[in-house]
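The records we work with from here on pair a chain with its fold. Taken together, the tokens spell out the fold as the letters spell out the chain. To see the layout at work, look at the sequence and tokens printed below.
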Amino acid sequence: MKKIDCSAFNNVKFGKNVTIEADVCKIFPGSVIEDNVIINARKIVIGYDSVIQKGTIARGLREEMKLFEIGDNAFIGFSNQVLVPVFIMKDYSQLHNSGLHSGYKPLTIGFNCWIGQQSILNSTETLTIGNNVRIGTHSQLWTHVASGELLEGCTLFGELPLNIMDNVWIVGGAVISPGLTVERNSIIMTGSVLTKNTEPFHTYAGIPAKDITGKLSCWKKVTGKDKINMMKIFINEFLSVFPKYKKNVLLKTDTCMGTEKTNEDKIMIGYNIAGMGKLKKNRISYFDMESKLYTKKRTAIEIDFIKFNLGYRARFIPCR
């Protein structure tokens, strides 16, 4: 690997004492890499408008890091340690400060994730975190258990992959055990220790965590009509903050889109839009409330709309 000349990148802001070593390095415009950041990987890709805060270190543990890749508008907070062979984090995901993320297998984080400060993400075995996952402060995700002495008969030893599926919410201070599948839309309450697989849309709490969905159900059924009515509210709230986009946000209830012609950047929101993957020829960003996909154009209005809704209103994934 060779030391990268930071001055070679246009429209990227580097702090003091930044050290980047790689065979291949791509850093896209708008990104910020603060003081005392160290990244050593064979291949480095940092997307548009992403931020890596001061004191973050990314490198391999037993062997060199092969890939360090973060998407557009991603965020890594200060003093994180990312010590894995492969690290991938997609668009709009946030890894907050002072975390320890280490191991010998790949660590993958999907789109629109939020991981709180001082969390531990262990990838002794493969750790896969899906899209739209929220992991509260001081949480721990483990893929191994190894402390007792085998020679003396200790049975607490194992290395098993951990899969966190889409839309999971680990509220905070929770411990997730190795070898589990945390199914989509599961909620793990504060301080819980999860030792068994979950069911979709179920709620778990306690040590060890038990299914408390009968007492605390955190989901309700919503129809297409419900989603449309809710989106009308979200749009009005968005336009109250960004009145300059008043003529550039459109909500349509029919499924046929793509013939619109415009010389302006716009967003169009619909339900069960046909052929989402083909709607890329004009300057409109299409958002489908049914599939939760959008056509990524990286316009200012698209980015502002995604960021505005990302916290708790609605989260969308770009079409492949």
